[in-house]
Amino acid sequence: MSAQSTERSALDVLVVGGSGVDTVVRVGSLPVPPADSVGVPPIREWAGHTGGNVALGCRALGLGVTFLDFIGDDLAGGQVRERLADGGVDFEHLVSPTGTRRAVNLVDDTGRRMSFYDARDPGDLRMPRDFYLPHLGRARHVHLSIVHFARFLYDDIADLGVPVSTDLHDWDGVEDHHRDFALRSDVVFLSAAGAGERIASVMREILREGRAEAVVATAGAGGSYLMTRDGGRTPRPIPATVPPTPVVDSNGAGDAYVSGFLYGRLAGRRVEECARLGAVAGAYACTGHGSSALIGREGLASAQV
User: Fold this and answer.
1) Closest-CA residue to 231 (of 195, 271, 202)
2) What local confidence, expressed as pLDDT, does residue 114 receive?
3) What gap in Å lies between CA 143 and CA 192, rounded to an integer?
4) pTM
C-alpha cells in the first residue's frame, strides 16, 4: 500500500464547508473612527476561514483530515486550494456558481478583530450524497461548518453513527439558521460574545433540547466555559492559556481551539483536558498573522493540561 493510500484511509476528521479568503486590514483601534480615508499598514490576504482553519489545525496536529466544500473557479478559490495543499490537507471541492466566499477582517493593535463575512452561497446549493457519503463512511469524526448546505448531511451522519461537532460562532441562541447545528451535534462550540449574559442559559438549552454531550463557549482572553450533560447547570470555567509570544492577530483562534479540542477527544482524553488543549492551541494561534500559527503535537504535549 502506498503512503498516499495509507494517509487517505486514516480519516480522523472530515470537515465540511467553510472555506474562503480573508482580507486583513490592520487598524489602530476598534471600532474604527469615522473618516473619509485612513492610512493602514499593508493589507494582506489569507486563505482559510473557519472550515479551512479547523482542517489545517487538525492536520498540523498529525490527524488525517479530508475537507469537502464548494469554492469558486476564481482567484480566491486558487488561493484556498494552494493553502490547503501546503498544509497537507486532502481537499476535495465542487465549483460554486457564486464564487469563493470572502471576508474583510479589521484587526486592532491588541489583535482583536471585527469580521465582515460574505455568505454568498445560494440558498438552493446542495452537496451531492455520492460526493460526501464515501468520506462519511470512513471518518472517525465529522465537523460541520454552519454553511446552509451542511445541515442536509445530518441524517446520513446519524444513520452512520459518526460523532459530529459544529461551531456556532456568535450565535445569540435565537437565530434560526444555527438551530439545526446546535441541536444535532455531539459537541457544540460557540462564542460567549453572541449571547452575552445569557450564555449559560443558551448552553443549557443546547444540552436540554439537543443531543450534545458537551457545549463549549469561548471567551477569548477570558478563557472558555464548559458544560456537559452530566456536569450540572453551571458552566465550568477553563482558564485561558497565556500565549508564548505577544499577541499579533486573533483570526483563527477559535478554530484552533476546536482543532485542539478534537485532537484530545480523538485521543480519548477527558472533556476538561480537551478544553485545555483547545485553549493552548487557541492561544498559540494568536501569535501569528492571519491564522498562520498552527501548533503541532509537540507544542500541545509540552503544555501543562
Assistant:
1) 271
2) 87
3) 20
4) 0.92
